[in-house]
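Practice problem: predict the structure.
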Amino acid sequence: MKKILIIGATSAIAKACARVWAEQNAEFFLVGRNKEKLEQTACDLKARGAKAVTLCTMDATDFSAHPAMLDNCLTALLQIDIALIAHGTLPDQAACEEDTAVALEEFSNNCTSVIALLTQLANQLEAQRYGTIAVISSVAGDRGRASNYLYGTAKAAVSTFCEGLRARLFKVGVHVITIKPGFVDTPMTKGLALPAALVAKPEQVAQRIVKGIERKVANLYAPGFWALIMLIIRIIPQPIFKRLNL
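Answer:
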């Protein structure tokens, strides 16, 4: 029976992953900002077979709340087999360009808070000498694009941090997987003009994430075709790339 911590547990991808694990009778510690949504998620998981679900209301950008959250998680679960970090926002790039405060707030939502949580989780799993840390980054972090470079910068930093953390924790039997979704049909992308052929359902992405964790993949593009797309985007020469409307 897996014991799973999910931060950002009410996000569409996190819920889809949790539903897969619930069918395996996993035990959960769910963290999110919205108490009502957490309770709805808990009821759904219990109905699908979860052995137990403990809830914690927390804003991930409140760094002072992180230690108590982790202590409560360990009290409830006793150990952490999988920690999934899935919180984040999709910034308004134009607003970030106009207002430094907005830019820094969004960077904290998508990067600094993740690094703060990873630092504490890494120490815990290092002490356990086993377990997996799974972090949802994004294909946006593979290259800076004019349309969303604040978000891309945050995700690039998270991906690089995870790469270093993976090398550190590998030596003690702990695995770190960086998950890079492309376009996913979630409330965060609602209303965006996205190419329909490239938009995946959360359930598709979740199945790939769960399998990737089991296989101990290092970097996981979801769906898999994004690995090829981003390879092409990364090799476009800068003189050409800066002229593209991406």
